[in-house]
Design brief:
mainly alpha
């Protein structure tokens, strides 16, 4: 006999229903889809080629020996390629988001009064498709112009691919990750608790992004004349506005709507905590190459070498190798800045999970992420670079 208490109707939770309604209505009113679509269609790299697109510290390899040795034109290029790399990672995340928005909505179909949640997710998925189209148009044109090849962008793929573009992975880990994602999709489409708690994972994964993207958006809002800021800066701002509402809905669904459900079973708690552990594993390290995206730097060596030896950047192979060796074997201002961003993310993740009764200690304390350190980063990258250099 099932003695779990029956769920309450969402319609009876006036406070949560009001939160959902206000967030959805405000998102519709401030929807940036038309702005982003127009910006993506209007973008021509030549019109933005001479200008930075982000605050200076959000440049590829900022604060490292590569940055210190760069000319002003090379610094502009590194700034623009940060935008390309950052939003290429966001594309990967948003492809998965569109899919899991829908599987999670399906998990709520059988419950009373859950239309407001599903309507919210429908709008967000449509916005994500607009984001992806603009990001890919701008990033692809930029790489073609600067590098003559694709380095950070990638062919479109499905939602089961590795979310982190530059990860510490291999064939077996990739297969295992795809199997986990397929299983999670099946579970979330037929289980209301797991469906709601997908948004806990989504909220956690986007929390650091929200903090970084606010700073990126300021390159547009704080420009002397925002109407004349580069199109990629406008897109950063418009994207941040949309994502602010998406983060709000993640929090409302995972923290408030979940109270309308039956208490989770041991299996449901285990599934959710496994999803959170997966987020920790993806974010367990920081990157000196791109502050704010937690990539595995040894996986980036080929890409960064391609950037530095491209016609647009202009270094000889030996000079590029020398600068990269120093960058990945020495402490630098950029390394400590990336470490500080990672520590801030860890603390915000802990706060986001605080007080949720079904979170285990490993996730509540962010134990995997907490192991990251500058000393660990240096040891990993020195080993990795020695192996990479030996293959050249």
């Amino acid at each position: 006999m099932n003695d779990r208490p029956a769920p309450i109707r969402l319609a009876d939770d006036v406070r949560t229903l009001k939160k959902l309604g206000l967030n959805h209505q405000r998102n519709k009113v401030q929807d940036q889809t038309a702005v982003i679509d127009a910006a993506g269609a209007d973008f021509r790299y030549a019109n933005c080629a001479q200008l930075p697109w982000n605050p200076e510290r959000f440049s590829l390899l900022w604060g490292t020996p590569v940055w210190e040795a760069a000319s002003q034109r090379q610094r502009v290029l590194l700034n623009q390629l940060y935008w390309v790399a950052y939003y290429s990672q966001i594309v990967s995340a948003e492809v998965a988001t569109i899919f899991f928005n829908q599987t999670s909505a399906a998990g709520l179909y059988g419950l009373e009064d859950f239309r407001p949640v599903c309507d919210t997710l429908d709008l967000e998925s449509a916005q994500e498709r607009a984001h992806i189209a603009a990001f890919r148009s701008i990033a692809g044109q930029t790489e073609d112009a600067l590098l003559g090849r694709r380095v950070f962008t990638w062919p479109m793929r499905g939602p089961y691919a590795e979310t982190m573009i530059f990860a510490d992975t291999g064939p077996f880990r990739g297969w295992w990750k795809r199997l986990q994602l397929r299983t999670y999709g099946l579970l979330s489409s037929d289980n209301a608790f797991i469906a709601c708690q997908y948004f806990l994972v989504r909220g956690l994964r986007t929390l650091n992004g929200k903090q970084v993207q606010h700073q990126l958006s300021q390159h547009h809002t704080q420009a002397p004349d925002p109407d004349l800021s580069p199109i990629p800066s406008l897109v950063s701002y418009a994207h941040f506005l949309d994502e602010s509402f998406h983060f709000n809905s993640s929090t409302i669904i995972s923290h408030d709507v979940v109270r309308c459900l039956k208490p989770p079973t041991a299996f449901e708690r285990w599934v959710v905590n496994q999803g959170l552990l997966g987020c920790q594993r993806d974010h367990r390290q920081f990157s000196v190459a791109i502050n704010g995206i937690f990539w595995h730097d040894p996986a980036l060596y080929d890409a960064l070498f391609a950037v530095l030896t491209s016609p647009g950047y202009g270094l000889a192979a030996a000079d590029a190798t020398h600068l990269l060796r120093r960058t990945f074997s020495e402490e630098s201002e950029g390394l400590h800045a990336s470490s500080a961003t990672h520590a801030k993310a860890r603390d915000s993740y802990r706060s986001y999970l605080d007080g949720l009764p079904f979170i285990d200690a490993a996730n509540a304390e962010q134990r995997i992420i907490s192991k990251a350190s500058v000393a660990q980063w240096l040891a990993t990258n020195r080993r990795g670079f020695a192996k990479w250099e030996a293959r050249q």
